[in-house]
Amino acid sequence: MLYVLALIGALTIAVLLWRAFGSARPESVATRRFVAPDDDPEFLRKLGEQQSKQKRQDEE
Hints:
By secondary structure, the protein is mostly helical. The chain has one domain. 75% of the residues lie in helices and 0% in strands. The protein is built from 3 helices and no strands. It is rod-shaped and about 90 Å long.
C-alpha cells in the first residue's frame, strides 16, 4: 500500500513539473483570432462609405 501511495505521489510531482517546465506551448497560435468580414472595422467603414456614396448618387 505504501508503494502505491509513493507511486501516486511521484506521478503527481512528475506531472506538475512537466506542466510547469516541460510543456512549452506557443501562446500566439492559441490566442490568434481571425476577424470575419462582418467584424472587421475597416471592412465596415468601407461598406458605410460605399453606402453613403451610393445614396448621394441616387439623390442627384
